Fold this sequence. Notes:
The protein is α/β, with parallel strands linked by helices.
Amino acid sequence: MAPNPMDLGGSTVLVTGASSGIGRETAVLLSSLNARVVLTGRNRERLEQTLSLLSGEGHRIEPFDLGRAEEIPKWFRSLAAAVGPFHGLVHCAGLQMTMPIRFVTHTGAEELLRTNVLSAIMLMRGFSQKDCHAAESSAVFLSSIAGLNGRPSTSVYAASKAALMGVAKSLAVELAPQRIRVNCVAPAFVRTEMLEGYRELVSKEQFEALERAHPLGFGTARDVANAVAFLLAETGRWITGSTLLVDGGYSAQ
């Protein structure tokens, strides 16, 4: 029987934002593909809940606030010293801001950009350090269709997700000599806690219209996790600097 090209046996992968939503589902899927998963987020209790869902052994939680961006490289080095070099990094942590531009504040915008973009850059600084990554490794950023398709009241969030695509392209070229691949996955609206929060902000008619804008309907966290795993595994070995749209046809119209 031919080997499974998506098997991640022998790999160690760090998943940020692993306490809920797409981050949690990604961690669960990667464990089922035989990866050893390191879970990070701010809430230890929710990370413990994710840990209880994982298959296999050797997984661990490492609570950390990625808002402390300047500390990330040192923290990453300490992780690698404890668990060995990482084969994969999946950056799912992030904030969402749905707000008309006239209400956006400097403080709120700065916090979102620091969490969504600066943390990704500093994670990659940490990941690319000597002895922190395996000989062949892969990083995946969770971007968003918002970075490509405009919607009202999402300017700051869209800016952060578009920035991740630009970061991935530049780092893909810069880090190719180190055999580090860097890609993005850009989902449209997915059934998560974040989508439920959005439902509360709009009318029933607006929410139903949003679902109709997805020819295949809203996606699930597993749909996005499948794309992340594809890019991490041998199946993505010749892909770098790309953004994989996982949007149920949203951007095809």
